Amino acid sequence: MKSTSLPASIGAWLRGNPILSGLSVAVVVATSLFFGWRYSHPQTPVKIGLLHALSGPMAVSEGPMVEAELLAIEEINQDGGVLGRPLEAAVADTGSHAESAMRKTEQLLDKDKVSAIIGCWTSACRKSVRPIIERHNALMIYPMAYEGLERSPNIIYTGAAPNQQVLPAVNWAYENIGTRFFLLGSDYIWPHAVNAIVRDQIRALGGTVVGESYLPFGSLDARESVAAIKASQPDVVLSTVVGDSNPVLYHEFRTAGLTSRQIPIISFSIAETEIQGLPGADMNGHYAAWGYFQSISRPTNQGFVERFRRKYGDARVVSDVMETAYFSTLLWARAVERTGTVDPDEVNHALLGINLDAPEGIITVDPSTRHTWRSFNIGQIEGNQTIRIVWSADHAIRPIPYPGSRSISEWDNFLSGLYNSWDHHWINRRTMQSPEEQP
Amino acid sequence: MIRWPSLERGIQHRTLATRLVFWFSILLLVPMLIISVAIDRVSNRALQEDVLEKLGMVARDKASSLEILAYDRTRSAAMIGRIGRIGNAAMTLANPKATEKERSEENEVMGRVTSLFASNLGFQDVIVVCPKGNVLYHSSNRFDLGSSLVNGPLRESPLGQLVKRSLTLLEPDISDFDVYPGSELPQGFVSAPIIREDGTKAGLVILQINDKEILDILTNYTGLGRTGNVIVGALRGELIHVVAPIRGRPDAAFKVTVGVGAPYGSDIQNAVIGNLGGGRVRSVLKNDVLASWIYVPSFRWGIAIEQNYAEATDMVGDQRMALFGAVAAIITPILLIALMVARSISGPIRTAVQAAERVAAGDLSGDLSAFGTDETSKLLNALGKMVNDLNSLISQVQRSTIDLVSTANSLSAMTQTQSDEVKNLGSTTTEIAAATKEISATSEELLQRMTRISTVTDHTQELANSGQNAIGTMQTTMHSLADATHSISDRLGQISQKTNIIGSVTTTITKIADQTNLLSLNASIEAEKAGEYGVGFAVLAREIRRLADQTAVATLDIERMIREMQDSVSGGVMEMDKFSEQVNRSVSDTHLIGERFGTIIQLVQDLLPQFEAVHEGMRSQSAGARQIRDSMVNLTESVRVSAHSLEETRAATHRLEAAIDELRSEISAFRLG
Questions:
Q1: Which of the four pLDDT bands, split at 50, 70 and 90, describes residue A2?
Q2: How far apart are CA B375 and CA B349, in angstroms?
Q3: How confident is the model at residue B437 (pLDDT cuts 50, 70, 90)?
Q4: How far, in Å, CA of A407 to CA of A418, rounded?
Q5: d(CA B421, CA B649)
Q6: Does B598 touch chain A (CB under 8 A)?
Q7: Which helix (H) or strand (E) covers residue A37, if one does?
């Protein structure tokens, strides 16, 4: 008897049955086509909106934020994107202008259909955009230290609340520098709110506020304010001056014969990026208070700085807002992975209670306040344009957006009072020289 | 993967029934095994996910309990810090001017108020410090704080750190947990600023968190089975400290540590850096566990909820047993049925095989007819018919074999003869081939020589041609030489004539001189006659006579010279004539040579085509020889081949003979019916 192997006989049998063999070939081809399509078909990207000023007076500060956010997006995509889909940035330029920011927000939500928006620096921008975000039931992450006094169900606040930046700095100054404070700021919502909080705190500490002065938003003349400081001779100046006004302030401060040894300025607005372009003589010895400084010695931070410099150049520095913008993006992606969808509502919910090993330390989104547990550091500016940490809070501080010195309704009334007195704007436009430059 | 060839080789030597059962069981077992394994894996994964989900829920539950506890305690502490009586008491106690009585009173107030709030709000111990960190009040003396928490013995402890931080932040805060002298379990504290009614600060109130409440949360293993565990870790630098007891290790707190990046305890390593997740890991105690991990920001703790992998997947083992039981229960009866079916098929086939074996042994006498309509009966019937046919066939073959033998014999003889002839032919052709080869070589050499001669002839012709040309030139030169000689002769003739004319002139002159001499002689005579009158004349006549004498002498010279000249000229003419004759002879000689050269050239030219013809003949002869040689080689090859084939034919014939012998013996084995 002739014997053949089983596979050979099956082969022979198939050759004898053209229909059957055709069918099996068709099945194999169809299966491979299906899986080929399934795994090679490009996934539609997930879009995230980056809403920042890339022109106008705030561009110098907000440009680096976009860079940090793009770095985070690049890293997320290197790790396979979100839910297996690539993450794509939709960058919108607010032009440092509240009305433009509102228009761009509508565009991002309606046209680009972004899953979330990370954006704004100024409180004016955030407060203008907030109603639109809430109307769309969208999700926004605000990555900037601010005055607090707010809690929107559609915004996650990753920047420092007053008790994470301003108040510890006031307490530290009271303990370590002196008790006579001068409050200096730009003439818009954030400095006014911060100074209200600071005044309460100084009163609680037993210190005195010897003067308070506001520069018009975007002003390039600080002589009047510097003269007021010189006249009142405080122990320390708390500065909430923003953007392009800072260089002139520090320069006129020094040319007026004031030194950082006699009257140091503690700024809540300038950081590593801002001091790069400024003369060391103007800046040396003054202080800044932030959750993050580039000099924090944690492996996570070293990796972050290294990756940022690899992407943008070795001479670049990173600051608190950039770190915040960076980890905010990662935080959002982590929440998306956790909830398994990019739906803003779901992600909004998933963000609450989420933790992340950020460059500054482990940060947590506090579910009850929607603000973030942040670190706190006081840094002193040194001649070589670096910031040396002189005091650190060791670990993240629980956010308290409404300082306990007044009730929530008192704070809300205070804000609406300012808004109404400024003709329904979040910036005092009457002190601004040219209305065209309004942010 | 089963290796088919070896398996098949093994099975091919088995009986049909065994093979049927084998393939049957393979077809049954393989899909069943695949399905079982798939089910097993899917259910295992599902179970793992279930367990992880459950662990995750426990983790989230514990984390949120701890968060709520922390939030609650910080708010409570903040409230206690705002109790006016405490603020006043702190102010008094901090005042160095306060009397002892005031102090003890305030101490009592402090004790009353704080104990009332503290125990109700979940605190054990209460400490109050002034804004400089000096201890103002301590509700118990369980452990020694020293006089100051900022400068005292505990300044480097988490409690000291908490005081320093809180004095600056002026906010409720929770310390890291640590073991203090006098306490067995790790202790944590909440601090809050004491704010007086006017908003100024009066110090800190520090409350010891009730460790039992936290332990209750952490050591509650409900829903975690026999091996479930809760690991709580805090990151200090590069080392993670376990800060709470572990199940089975009540002393674990601050005794068990894990380095960051260690190959075990990755659950707690992830937890302390704020990650949330779950998976199969090696635990801190180096067990194989399923774990879920989470971070607790208020305490800065990582929590890992673990369950031993073996316990977590216990159910999978049960399921596996059930599955294999079911597989066995299905397979056994099916295999039995397969065996029966195989037997029913293989029985009749075995009969047929036996019959075929008998036929194979040469026994064609048996009866093989069977009854029935199934395939095996048909097979037996067919076999029977085949045996009958074989019977007649073989007797036919036997007869034919004898004829074949004689044919083979004669064939063999013929082949032998043919083979010998071919062998002869082979040697002859080889000889011819050798001869031809020689001829070919010779003719080729000849051809080469002819070619050389032809070249030489060509050369000779060229030489002759150039010689003829040279002679032509020479002839021309000779002719012009003869012409020149003639004209010289003519000139010499003319000179001779002119000399003769001069001779006649000289004669005339001689005559004139003679007459003159006579005349002068006459004159002198006459003069003599004239006397004196003739003296002058006599002189004159004398002179004339002398002149005539001189002329006669000169004329004689001229005559002599002309004669000499004439002699020379006539000698020259004679020489010239002789020379001219020689030239003419040379011209005719040259002409003769020219003609001879012409003849030679003509001869050589006539020779050339003949050479060419010979050459051509040679070449074709050489080619012919080569062709013959090649043909001879081919012929030799053919002879060799045919010799070989003959050899084979002979071998075949031998084999044929052997085969016929064999056939004859084989056929003789058949017993014909």
A1: very low
A2: 9
A3: confident
A4: 17
A5: 15
A6: no
A7: helix A18-40
Closest partner CB to A168 (pick from B71, B161, B169): B169
Contact of B465 with B584, CB cutoff 8 Å:
no
Full 3-state SS string of B230-245: EEEEEEECCEEEECCC
Answer for the pair A352, A365: CB distance below 8 angstroms, yes or no: yes
Would you call A354 and B165 a contact, using CB atoms and an 8 Å cutoff? no
Residues in Cβ contact with A292 at an 8 Å cutoff, skipping those fewer than 6 apart: A301, A319, A320, A323, A324, A358, A359, A360, A375, A377
Q: Give Cα A427 distance to the centre of its chain.
A: 20
Given a contact cutoff of 8 angstroms between Cβ atoms, the answer to whether B586 and B476 are in contact is no
* pLDDT at A16 > cutoff 50: yes
Query: What's the complex ipTM?
Result: 0.82
pLDDT digit string (tens) for B144-153?
Answer: 888 888 888 8
Asked if B78's CB is within 8 angstroms of A163's CB, the reply is no
Residues contacting A6, CB < 8 A, separation 6+:
B4, B8, B23
> Which position has the token pair 């070449």?
B619
Higher per-residue confidence, B585 vs B667: B585
Q: CA gyration radius for chain B? A: 78
A395 pLDDT tier (thresholds 50, 70, 90): confident
C-alpha distances in Å from residue B12, one per residue of A45, B20, B338: 59, 11, 18
Strand partners, B171: none
Q: Which pLDDT value is given to residue B672?
A: 62
**CA B668 to each of CA A70, B134, B394, B397: distance values in angstroms, whole numbers, following the listed order:** 100, 130, 10, 11
Residue that has been written with the tokens 């502490």 in this structure: B77
Note whether B200 contacts A398, CB cutoff 8 Å: no
Are A266 and A286 spatial neighbours (Cβ–Cβ below 8 Å)? yes
Query: Cβ(A65)–Cβ(A328) under 8 Å?
Result: no
Contact A365, A353 (CB under 8 A): yes
Q: Decide if B169 and A394 are in contact by the 8 Å CB cutoff.
A: no
Is there a contact between A318 and A272 (Cβ–Cβ < 8 Å)?
yes
Is residue B76 within 8 Å of B121, Cβ to Cβ?
Answer: yes
Structure tokens at A251: 């320069």
**C-alpha triplet B475, B480, B482: angle, nearest 5°:** 95
Structure tokens at B533: 């009158």
Q: Name the residue among B8, B165, B273 with its Cβ closest to that of A5.
A: B8
Q: Which of A172, A362, A373 has its CB closest to that of B273?
A: A362
User: Distance (Å, rounded) from C-alpha A404 to C-alpha A161?
Assistant: 13
A338 contacts in chain B (CB < 8 Å): 276
Cross-chain Cβ contact A355/B161 below 8 Å: no
**The pair of three-digit structure tokens given for residue A125, joined into one six-digit string:** 């921008």
What is the full DSSP assignment across A390-439? EEE-SSPBPP-SS-TTS-HHHHHHHHHHHHHHTTS-SB-GGG-S-GGG--
Residues of A with CB under 8 A from a CB of B: 3, 5-7, 163, 167-168, 171-172, 175, 200-201, 203-206, 338, 354-357, 362-364, 366, 368, 373, 376, 391, 393-398, 400, 404-405
Tokens (6 digits) for A89: 């940035």
Cβ proximity of A65 and A52 under 8 Å: yes
CB pairs under 8 A between A and B: 77
CA angle A123, A124, A126 (to 5 degrees): 60
- Estimate the crossing angle of helix B375-529 against helix B314-361, to 10 degrees: 90
Residue that is written with structure tokens 């032919």 in the block: B425
- Give the DSSP letter of residue A435: G
Contact predicate B497/B588, CB 8 Å: no
What CA–CA distance (Å, rounded) separates A206 from A216?
Answer: 30
Contact predicate A416/A189, CB 8 Å: no
Report d(CA A192, CA A184) in Å as an integer: 9
Could you tell me if residue B391 is left (phi over 0), alpha (psi between -120 and 50 degrees) or otherwise beta?
alpha
A43 pLDDT tier (thresholds 50, 70, 90): confident
